[in-house]
Amino acid sequence: MSEKIAPILPDVESTPETEEEVIPSEESNTSWLGITVLLGPPGLWLILLLVLPTLVIFELSLVPGIRPGEVVNPSGLENYWRVFDAINLRVVARSLVFATGTTLLCLLTGFPVAYWIAQMAPKGWRNLLLLGFILPLWTSSLLRTYAWITILRPTGVLNTVLTTLGLPGLELLNRTPAVLIGMTYSYLPYMVLILYASLEKLDRQLLEASADLGANPLETFWKVTIPQTFPGIAAGSLLVFITGLGDFIDPELLGGASSMTISRLIYNQFLGAARNWGFGSALSMVLIFAVSAAIALLLKYGDRDVTT
Amino acid sequence: MKRRQFIQTATTAFAGLSVSGCGWTLASVNPTPSNQGSSDELYIYTWAGYTDSDLLRRFQEATGIRAVADVFDSNEAMLARLQASGGGGYSIIYPSDYMVQKMVELDLLLELDQSQLVGLERLFERFQNPSYDPQNRHSLPLSWGTTGLIYNRKLLPDLPQDWDYLWEHKEALNKRMTLLNDVREVMGASLRSQGYSYNSTNPAEIKAAYEKLRELKPAIASFTSDAWRNQILTGDLLIAMCYSSDANEVMRENPDLEYVLPLSGSSVFVDTLVIPRSAPNIKGAYAWMNFMLKPEIAAQICQRLSFSVPNKEAFAMLPPEIQNNPSLFPPDPAISRCEGLVPVSQEISELYDRYWTRLTSG
Description:
The structure holds 2 protein chains of 2 kinds. Chain A has one domain (2-307): MetI-like (MetI-like fold, Orthogonal Bundle), CATH 1.10.3720.
């Protein structure tokens, strides 16, 4: 889901900038004006639309069982204890499995492709090939998920092809594999783009040196290519993991009867029958903390040149 | 939306976060004086499909009022948005029965001045005094339908009559059946199949409903209110729990599909028209209600959207094959076994929700 990326990337970009801009400001008064003009509007934007709502969610998460129309009186951590009920932990665990599985699949399928585009494909083709990867993002993610239903359903495109080839059909739809396929498809472009940026800068002379010094291709890949591109791998994996953790559409439409994830659980608390905004807010805070931790890791280990 | 109106709405939205005592009230809706807002524009908040451009054009020709329709996809989403935006500038809203009751409890709806409505007597008797809104004091019934099962006649061993069919044939139907993505409907069906009320508030009965569903769970392909449509047409699904209006729409595309209203009883829903207390154009809202009460307009809603109509004169205008379609107009004894969904207390809806989380994550 492309719209989820937006709030994540500006964070990654703006944090280092803020630090750099603040230091010279103490030296002269004129630069204060510049800072106000430059950082005022986005700062106001962030405070009004990100910080304040998050604080409201945090306050709501401290009120057990609050619904619209009731007075907000923060009274305790009850909602948070409920997150640790066995049944809700199972939901969180499933979300983690979906997100982790998607990240691994994106990495395994995305790395060879990004490597080929960055290092082996003719130079003139590269932009076109990358464009090909971004192209699906121009259509609605809902539409793309419905397309996967058409492909994966028992008498769908995939099984028609398989049976024509004399192979046994596969039961994928409404099961975990379908969710992983759908999510991997949704997030692969992000992984490929980030890995490409990292692999493009790969120093080929080092690869040649490694070969000259007697390393076989596998050793070279493991000891030279991977360490050089690690920041890209970390950035891509975390980006996919974070987005996957909050995915709503793929598990809902492809996952079948046992596909409750944390984002669907949150939706049910706000718009479903229970309408317990307090518990929904607590779940949201847990998700925000988890994602913040992941972003902290990204800032620590990710290559800033890659992410900006 | 005009700029002035936008500012007005935005102001009300902030007013929604009103401070009272030590805490603040979450998303309350304050009524706006009726003289605000323009009288030649009418903002309608409705289900997708209920209003098309042709209908809006005919309304404008008849009354000179330009109607603009926004759509929602669930009663809960509509209520949340209404509360979050302090009314949202809408003068007509299309809630379903139980939501009318909830909105009346929340004091969001204007009490209707029935002297301003022409043709209320055209409603069938059972819609004159509905339990969700006695004497239609706040709402006008527009269309109705039932919850039941759609199935492919050619692909099933024998034909379903009741909910228990799903349990009896769960091996044959394994992963070829879907239930609605709605906790109350699914639990209600299970409750009803055991002889309890669709709206049970008895924890022991609700538990029994969950236990029975858990037995069926491995055979359920998914809980969906929408994705079953294509899959039942292609034969990937054999049976799906659905609303009669959706069923009739899909049945037009494949004559092998049939709809059954389960014998032991099911739920019946009514979609209504209401005027929120925050409505800027109350006069226009009455004009819209009177327009929808016209038999020829009500009849076209039935024909175009496959909803049943509560309007006697509109029913009389329908072609015989629609009048005699039991999936649209089931016989009275069948309807008498159906219940409307009734809102339950916070405690009980939490209970339903916990079982639902358990069921969908098991």
